[in-house]
């Protein structure tokens, strides 16, 4: 994944004039377009290719208070070999864990292409002093995290303190060093598509390598219209500056059918250049098994029992 270049200074500051007006986004039109794109049909060979790509784009995630080294090790094994009986099934993109379990994941994934991602910055609330957030990021990076998934301070954003949010992302990005930064907007708490676009532009201007919908801890999480809104912001930044930023919908994507819908929206909005794990990820903990079952169905014509695959 190439390091995203900094945006031109004129795009970064001042922030206020660059942010959309309230009511600027036509919610009805956005939702209608997302719904229309989701209806695109895909034939058998293309569907198999889309399912294969979906696996390669997944970040398998475990972010529970009861996480153990054993649970993370088992998840890493599944990440590398999603179906141990079928070597044609690719590995996933990354495993995402809390900072204190990064070393376990790093050791278990050694020698594989699977990245280790870690949440940080007082996940999932984002409600900690900046010094604590930066220490959180530094610890995860020192333990070996390849990617950092940070959360923005939604309280600051919703109260209009955009510069505070911007500055925190800039400092977190610096603390990441060589690790790539995904900025979680927690769109379910932002209240409007205008705010989703505002937060997307702000995060990209501050240096995000990816923008991400959700923590998975708040409902609603990822939706097709919200994802389309964010993809259009990515497209507009690319058109204006040439900068390439990735996208990660996360939370609530549980079926192969949903994954294919997201890929259709992605392809229609940003084109084939973004159809790669380097620029698009699914934040998923329950999607993989359904995709594996659908691959079996496409190849054999019969559904495989869900009991055949290990539980994530």
From TrEMBL:
CDD domains, sorted: DeoC
Catalyzed chemical reaction(s): 2-deoxy-D-ribose 5-phosphate = D-glyceraldehyde 3-phosphate + acetaldehyde
Gene3D superfamilies from the UniProt entry: Aldolase class I
UniProt pathway annotation: Carbohydrate degradation; 2-deoxy-D-ribose 1-phosphate degradation; D-glyceraldehyde 3-phosphate and acetaldehyde from 2-deoxy-alpha-D-ribose 1-phosphate: step 2/2
InterPro entries found in the cross-reference section: Aldolase_TIM, DeoC, DeoC/FbaB/LacD_aldolase
GO CC terms, sorted: cytoplasm
Keywords: Lyase, Schiff base
Listed SUPFAM superfamilies: Aldolase
GO terms of biological process kind: carbohydrate catabolic process; deoxyribonucleotide catabolic process
Molecular function in Gene Ontology: deoxyribose-phosphate aldolase activity
Enzyme class of the recorded protein, top EC level: lyase
EC number assigned by the record: 4.1.2.4
Matching Pfam families: DeoC
Family (UniProt): Belongs to the DeoC/FbaB aldolase family. DeoC type 2 subfamily.
NCBIfam families for this protein: deoC
Protein name: Deoxyribose-phosphate aldolase
Organism placement in taxonomy: Bacteria, Bacillati, Actinomycetota, Thermoleophilia, Gaiellales
């Amino acid at each position: 994944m190439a390091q995203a270049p900094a945006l031109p200074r004129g795009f970064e500051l001042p922030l206020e004039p660059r942010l959309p007006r309230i009511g600027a986004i036509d919610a009805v039109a956005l939702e209608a377009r997302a719904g229309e794109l989701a209806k695109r049909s895909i034939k058998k060979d293309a569907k198999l290719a889309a399912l294969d790509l979906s696996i390669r784009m997944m970040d398998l995630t475990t972010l529970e208070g009861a996480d153990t080294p054993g649970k993370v090790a088992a998840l890493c094994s599944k990440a590398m070999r999603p179906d141990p009986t079928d070597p044609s099934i690719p590995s996933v993109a990354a495993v995402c864990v809390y900072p204190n379990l990064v070393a376990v994941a790093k050791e278990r994934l050694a020698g594989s292409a699977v990245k280790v991602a870690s949440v940080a910055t007082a996940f999932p609330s984002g409600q900690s002093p900046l010094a604590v957030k930066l220490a959180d990021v530094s610890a995860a990076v020192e333990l070996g995290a390849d990617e950092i998934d940070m959360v923005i301070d939604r309280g600051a954003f919703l109260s209009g303190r955009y510069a505070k949010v911007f500055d925190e992302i800039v400092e977190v990005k610096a603390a990441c060093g060589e690790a790539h930064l995904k900025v979680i907007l927690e769109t379910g708490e932002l209240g409007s598509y205008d705010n989703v676009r505002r937060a997307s532009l702000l995060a990209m201007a501050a240096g995000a390598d990816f923008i991400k919908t959700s923590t998975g801890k708040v409902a609603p999480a990822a939706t097709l219209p919200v994802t389309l809104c964010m993809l259009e912001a990515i497209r507009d930044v690319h058109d204006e500056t040439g900068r390439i930023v990735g996208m990660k919908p996360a939370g609530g994507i549980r079926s192969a059918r949903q994954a294919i819908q997201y890929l259709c929206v992605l392809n229609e909005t940003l084109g084939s250049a973004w159809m790669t794990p380097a620029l698009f990820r699914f934040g998923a903990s329950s999607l993989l098994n359904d995709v594996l079952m659908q691959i079996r169905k496409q190849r054999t014509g019969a559904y495989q029992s869900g009991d055949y695959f290990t539980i994530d």
